[in-house]
Amino acid sequence: MNMNAARIINVKEPLEIQSLETPKPRGSQVLIKVESAGVCHSDIHLWDGGYEGPAGSFMKTTDRGVKYPLTPGHEVAGVVESMGEEVEGFVKNEKVLVFPWIGEGLCPACRVGEENLCDKPRSLGVYNDGGYAEYVLVPSYKYLAKINDMDTDICAPLSCSALTAYGAIKTAKLNPNDNVVIVGAGGLGLMGIQLAKAISGARIISLDVNDEKLKVAKQSGADITINSAKEDPIKAIMELTGNLGADAVIDFVNATKSVETDMQILRRRARVVLVGLFGGSLQLNLVTMPTRAYKIMGSYTGSMTDMIELISLARRDIIKPMISNRFKLNQATEALTMLKEGKIIGRGIINP
């Protein structure tokens, strides 16, 4: 039996629909029939073949261990098609969300349940074939979460977009009386706003260059929106915080220009959480690091436990991933192009 997959054969070239042999699950493996695969910014980096590094350098994905041809797609929801002989607790046609941030299980991060930060990652759709396909092979049933009767389109982004936002919000350790600046109002930023609203009670300031996105940010729960292309964000934020600065900044863009702004709006003891993979470099004023005692932290996706918590939040409509565009498998290149050009507000989904 064969299946279709949209694959990156060569970087920067249109994805090709290939007919591949459908994998047969053995042991604890599970074959999932893909119903929804989210289209994520990190898929664009895989397609481009890398990231922007310091001083205009280019960091290749192959240097990080990515191999081509590759079937991308790490936000995957679908139904159980078939199972290896050791699988327990799941039945055929059961609806599931896949946790894609798979580790080798032996490093210190894996041992404490932070497989997303494994030293030798085996993530689906990054290091192994993912969900831009009719079927995906998941290495163990322990990476599946039951979603019962929930919509797979709504659930797919919970495994990366929402998970990454949730991890960042947790890392920022927000308090109800904090002013938090959330930089970027794309799929990730909007989810970050919803989550900050739901679990922290902090005052949320949303920063973007697109009025359309800021309008949605306001609807998602931002208290204040600032278009940094039209007004000076530093001046605006200092005025909003009585010239003290923000208690936390969560940057879902993480480009040279956005982080240079972040560093100028910090209150003493502020937390800066860098999340986006846009890239670039930053010059630090080293004296202000001790005198202002702020912390700069990175946050990358989240754990299986976090994902299960998110399913609970989504089930009760406390968060609502915004699905704005739907594509067929043969429109994968179009989906990535639209996202790259900033034409998708919310999340795009491929329905194979």
TrEMBL record:
The entry lists its GO molecular-function terms as:
adenyl nucleotide binding; alcohol dehydrogenase (NAD+) activity; anion binding; zinc ion binding
Q: What's a GO biological-process term for it?
A: protein tetramerization
- The Enoyl reductase (ER) domain covers 10-350
What does the UniProt keyword field contain?
A: Metal-binding, NAD, Oxidoreductase, Zinc
- EC number(s) stated in the UniProt entry for this protein: 1.1.1.1
CDD domains assigned: 6_hydroxyhexanoate_dh_like
- Cofactor annotation: Zn(2+)
Q: Which PANTHER family match?
A: D-ARABINOSE 1-DEHYDROGENASE (NADP(+)), L-THREONINE 3-DEHYDROGENASE
Annotated family = Belongs to the zinc-containing alcohol dehydrogenase family.
Protein name, entry field: NAD-dependent alcohol dehydrogenase
Gene that produces this protein: adh
